[in-house]
Every structure is written in C-alpha cells, then in structure tokens.
Amino acid sequence: MALADGLNRALRRAPVAPLYALAFAPAAYWLWRAVDGRLGADPVATLEHSLGLTALQFLIAALTVTPLRDLTGVSLLRFRRMLGLMAFWYAVMHVAVWVSLDRQFDWSRITADLLKRPYIIVGMAAFLMLVPLAATSFDGAVRRMGPLAWRRLHRLAYPASLLAAAHFIWLVKAWPPEPLAYGAVVLALVGWRFLPRTRRSRRPRAAG
Ligand code: HEM
C-alpha cells in the first residue's frame, strides 16, 4: 500500500495538459511520414489502421483505470478524461481519413458502406457513442447534468468499447490473434464492472 500511496502522491502533482500534446504525437508523426511518402506501399490504409488501433488502445487505457485502482490502489483517475478524449479524437481522425483519403468524399460509396458493410456499421455505432461522451467531458457538464446522470451517460463507454473491438475483429475475414486479443481485453475490462464490489477490491479493508 505504501508504494501505491507514494505513487498517488506523485500522480496528484503530475500535470495533465502536456499529456494531450504527447498523445497527439503519434498522429503527427504518421501524418508527417505520409506527407513525406514514407508510410509504406499503402499510406492511406496504414494511416487508417494506425489511427483506428490507437483509438481502441486509448479506450482500453481509459477502461483500465478502475480495475487498476481496485487491484493496486494506484489511481489514474485524473488522467481518465484525457485518455477518453484521445480515444475520441483518434476515432475522429480515423473516420476523417476513411471519408477523405480512402473514400475521397464519394458520398454514394460512403453511404453504401455505412448501410451494407457490417464492420463499418459497428464502427459507426461505436463512434456515435463516443460523441456524447466527448461532448460532456468537461467539469461544467458534470455540474449541469449532475454526477448520477453524468455517470449513467458515461457507461456508454462500455458498449462503445465492445463495438470498437467487434469492428476490429469483424473487418478481418480470418480470426487472427491480434483483434481477438483486443476483444478479450475489452471483454475482461467491461466484465470487471459487473463483478460484485466485494470481489473487485483486492486491497486490504481498513480495520474497524
Ligand atoms: C464511422 C465509423 C468508422 C468507420 C467508417 C471505420 C472504418 C474503418 C476502416 C475502413 C478500417 C480498415 C479496414 C480495412 O483494412 O479494410 C478500419 C479499421 C479499424 N478501425 Fe475503424 N472505423 C470506424 C470507427 C472506429 C472506431 C470508433 C474505432 C475505435 C475506437 C475504430 C477502430 C478501428 C481499428 C482498431 C481498426 C483496425 C486497425 C488495424 O487493422 O490495425 N474504428 N476502420
């Protein structure tokens, strides 16, 4: 516990703002390499995949905050909003690359994909669930909605993450391990929320 307390004291002092810039760095790097013609044979697909995967990884990081605290006492709660917002912004960049570079604003093809391709429909459902979460990720929204309604809305993060993982699994015809591994991690993290509280916390209960 002393280690967790020490870590929490340090984390409470760590600034969050610079982490946003750090979190955008991979996207800036891929964009720079794409513009420079050094993002492989199919830069659009590489950009689409990298941005989509990073969006999913940030979602998973945000979902990990509660189990990590339950299991170790280490609280990254101050960083959860940043992680959630980065998942949203990487999903926005991912979809923007699809609409602009992949589908080149061909709205009839885009509509056809959105209506006919299951993995795209699932991806879009995940994306639409992230929008109200991002739109209410500021203190004023919590005050205006009230903590209970805000927390209820933010449970959308669970189906959004499950759908994003399903989107990844569904887009590949075979069953490669990587998307399945992401799916299993998301299932475990969402499943953690449904465990009885008594089973969740591994930390020793305060005496008395
Ligand atoms: C309207 C919403 C969305 C559309 C149209 C969309 C479209 C796509 C497309 C076209 C691909 C590549 C398919 C291919 O290689 O053939 C893809 C891959 C992917 N997308 Fe999305 N997506 C959407 C939303 C999301 C969201 C919300 C997430 C995560 C939060 C996400 C995560 C991923 C991941 C992880 C991949 C696979 C990356 C890889 O193979 O390395 N997508 N998506």
How would you briefly describe this protein structure?
The protein is mainly α and 208 residues long.
Describe the structure.
The chain is mainly α. It has 11 helices and no strands. α4 crosses α6 (118-135). The two termini are 18 Å apart. Residues 45, 48-49, 52-53, 55-56, 59, 87, 91, 94-95, 98, 120, 123-124, 126-127, 164, 167-168, 171 line the site of protoporphyrin IX containing FE.
Residue ranges: pLDDT <50 for 5 or more in a row? none
Roughly how much helix do the residues carry, as a percent range?
A: over 70%
Mean pLDDT: 92
Span between N and C termini? 18 Å
Q: What is the N-to-C order of secondary-structure elements (H for helix, E for strand)?
A: HHHHHHHHHHH
Kindly state the number of beta strands.
0
Question: What ions, cofactors and ligands are bound?
Answer: protoporphyrin IX containing FE
Number of helices: 11
Number of structural units classed as domains: 1
Indicate the proportion of strand residues.
under 5%
Structural class of the secondary elements?
mainly alpha
The Cα radius of gyration reads 19 Å
Major sheet description: none
- What is the approximate shape? globular
Helices and strands, with pairings:
Elements lengths: L1 H12 L3 H19 L7 H30 L4 H26 L4 H10 L1 H18 L3 H7 L1 H7 L3 H15 L5 H16 L4 H4 L8
Helix pairs in contact: 2-3, 3-4, 3-9, 3-10, 4-6, 5-6, 6-9, 7-8, 9-10
This protein binds protoporphyrin IX containing FE.
Characteristics:
binds protoporphyrin IX containing FE; 11 helices; mainly alpha; 208 residues
